[in-house]
Amino acid sequence: MTSVRARRASSANPAGYCASVARAQLTAELVVDGRVPQALALSPDGRWVAYVVAPVGRAGVHPVGELWVAAVDGAEPPRRLTPGEAYDSALRWAADSLSIYFLSDRAERGTAQLHRVGLAGGAVRAVTSWAGGVSGHLPLAVGDRPHDRQHEDGADPGLVVVIAADEPSTEDERRRGERDDAWVWGERVRPDRLRLLDVHSGRIRTPDGFGERHVVEVAQRPGGGTLAVLTWSTPDIDPGLVEPALHLFDPDSGVTRDLGPAAAGASSLVWWRAGDGWHLAYVAKTPPGLVGGRAVLDVAVPVDGPVGEHRNLTAGMTVCPTHLVQVDAGVPLVLVADGLDTAIHRLDPAGPTLVEVSRLDGLATSLTTNRHGDAVAAVVSTSYRPGNVHAGPPSGPLARLTDLRPELRDVQWGVQRRLSYEASDGLALDGLLILPAGRSREDGPFPLVTLVHGGPYDRYADGLKLGWYPSGQWLATAGYAVFLPNPRGGQGHGHDFAVRVAGAVGLDEWGDISAGIDLLVAGGVADPDRLGIGGWSHGGFMAAWAVGQTDRFKAAVMGAGISDWGMLAATGEEGPFEAALGGSTGWEGTGPHPHDRLSPISYAAKVGTPVLILHGENDTNVPLSQARFFHRALRRFGVEHEYVVYPRENHSIRERNHQLDVLRRTRAWFDRWLG
After folding, report:
1. Mean pLDDT, rounded, for 162-176
2. How far is 385 from 398, CA to CA, in rounded Å?
3. 381, 417 in Cβ contact below 8 A?
4. CA distances from 92 to 43, 160, 594 (A)
5. Best CA proximity match to 360, nearest among 333, 372, 348, 378
6. How far apart are CA 616 and CA 614, in angstroms?
7. What is the pTM of this model?
8. Helix-strand-coil percent breakdown of the chain, rounded to 5?
9. CB 498: neighbour CB atoms within 10 A?
10. pLDDT tens readout for residues 448-463
11. Fewer CB atoms < 10 Å away: N or C end of the chain?
C-alpha cells in the first residue's frame, strides 16, 4: 500500500509568527480585516517598489486601497502616498522613476480615471476625466520623438496609452434616462479602444486601426518603440477570450499591422530581442485545447511579411508558467508554479526555452522587475507567514520589505506539513496536511476536513492557508486536521498533469483525493467517522460530486460550486472552457450527453450527507442557478442541507459582513456534524 510521506514545513517556527507565551485567538474579524499587498510595480531604476494595500473584506459599497512605496534596499521604511479613501490600482511608473501613474475612482466612486503622484508624495493629480472611466494604461518610454520632451515638473513621458470604451453618446444618455434600453445581442457593443493621451496638452486621440476589436493589453518595445497590442474579438469573455489576436501599432505614424490570431487565453505580453530580431512572447492555454496547463508561446516579428509559428517554449516541462515580465535590457523573466513552491525562470534564447534562476518557498505572486532585470519584487507567503512585499536580485534571496499583518504574530497555527503520495494509477501527487493547532500527529486521530482548491487549474502552494473562504488554518485553529490535496488537473506539474481532466472532471480527480484521505485514515491522522469535505468554485463542485459518490462524509460545504456542466457551458461567462471540462454542452442532440455523467445533479438521489450550499447572487462565472438546482434536488430527496445566497456578490465574496458569515457558518456547520 502506498504511504503518505510527510515532509518538512517551510518555516522554522510552526507554532506561530513568534515565540510568545500569550496566544491570540484567531477570529473571523482578524481574517477579513487583514491588509494584503497587490498590484506591485518596480521602478525602472530598480530603487523603489510601489504597491497597493487593501483590506480583505470590503466594508462599504466600493473597495478601497492605499498606494505605498518601499525602498528596495530597505534603507527607509515604506511610505503611504494616498489615503485609502478610494480604490487605487494598476500602478505604472513613469520612465524616469520619479512619478507613478495609476487608476483611481476618487473623483467618482466606481469609475476609474488615470491619476499621477510623485515619488516624493504631494498632491495626486487627475490625468483623465473620461466619461465611463478608464480600464488600462501604459506610460510610454522616452524616445527620440519631439513629443517625448522632458516636462518642467520632471515627469515623463509625452504620451500615455489609455484603454477605454467610447464615451456615452447623447443617444446613449437618452436611452438610459428614458429607460428605453432593451439589450440586443451584438448591437451597441462598446469595446475598449487604444487611445493616446498627450500628458502636456491633455488631448486624447483614438487610432482607428483595430476596428471593433476589444483592446485588453499593450506592451511597448524597449527603446521607446512600437507597441504590441493584444485584442479580443468582443468584450465578452465568451467568445473574446478564445478569439484573441496580436497587432503592432506605431504611435508616431498611426500605422497598425495585424499579426494574426494568438492562442486562447493569451495574456502577459512581452517583447524580447533574439539573434533574428524582435520577438513577442505571451502566456496562454497550451494549444490546441482549452483544458490543461498554460504555456509560454513565442513568435518572431519580422520587419514585414507574415509572422511565423507560435512556438511553445514550455512543451514537456513539469512546471507551469503563470506570468511573464518584460526586461527592457535583456530577456523576459517568468514566474513559475513548481509543485508546492514557486520559481523565477528566465527565457533562454539559445533553446529557446526556460531556465531556472531561483526558487521561492511557498507562494509568490505579482512578480515585477526593473529596466535591466537585475532586481525583482513579488508578494511572497510561506507556511506561517502571510503575503508581504519582498525584493532583491532575481537569483535571490528576496528580503521582506513590509509587515502588513502584525496582528497575526501571536496566533498559534496548526503545524503544516508537505505530503507526497501516489494515485492508484501511479501518478505522483502532492498536497498539504495541517494538524489541529497545538496538537501533534501522535495525538490523532482527528476530525478531518478535506478542502479542494478551485480551478481545476489552480493549486495549493505551501503558503499561509488563511482566507475568507473555507481555509486550512481557519479550521485547524478550531481543532480540525485539514487535508489540502493537489489532484490531477491542477497547476504546478506541467501540461500533461493538467490536461488529464479534459472531459473527465470528477473521475480520476476524485480518486486522487479519496486515495489521500484513505492514507491519512490508515496513518492514524484522520478519524474515519468524522470526515468532512468542502471547497469553493471547482472545489465546491468536488464537494457536491463527492457526496454523490460516497456516504463516508458527515458534512460538506459547496461554495459557488457546479451542479450541471451542460447548464454551466450555456450560462457561465467562460462557456467554451466549461464545455471542454464537462465534455459537452447539451445542444449536440437529445442525449444522454457526456457531461451528464460528470454532473453532481445526476447523483443527487444518492446524497445522504448534510450539505451547506453557499453562493453569490450575481455570480457570472458559476451562476446562482447551479446552487439553486442542487438545492431543489436535495429538497426533493429530503436531504439535510442549508442554502445561503449572498446578495450583490459575484463569484468571490467581497463584502466584509458576508465574508464573516462564510467563515462562521462554515466552521459552525462542521462543528455541528463532526463535533
Report:
1. 94
2. 15
3. no
4. 8, 11, 46
5. 378
6. 7
7. 0.94
8. 20, 35, 45
9. 25
10. 999 999 999 999 999 9
11. N
